Amino acid sequence: MNNAVLAFEDGSVFRGKAFGAKKTAVGEVVFNTSMMGYEELLSSPSNYMNILTMTFVEVGCYGINEEDVESDSAKVSGLVVAQDCEVPSNWRCKMSLNDYLVKHGVPAISGIDTRAITRKLRDKGAMKACISTEDISDADAIERAKQWQGFEGVDYVKDVSCKEAYRAEDKFAIKPFELGGVHIDSRERKTPLRKCVAIDFGANRSLLAGLAYNGFDVMIVPANTSAEEIEKLAPECVFLTDGAGDATALTYAHETVATLAKKYPTFAVGLGMQVLAYAFGGKAIKLPFGHHGGNHPVKNLAEDKVKITSQNNAFAVDAKSLEGSEMEITEVNHTDGSVAGIKHKSLNAWGVQYYPEVALLDKFYASL
Question: What is each CA distance from 25 to 17, 74, 101, in whole angstroms?
Answer without folding.
Answer: 16, 14, 13
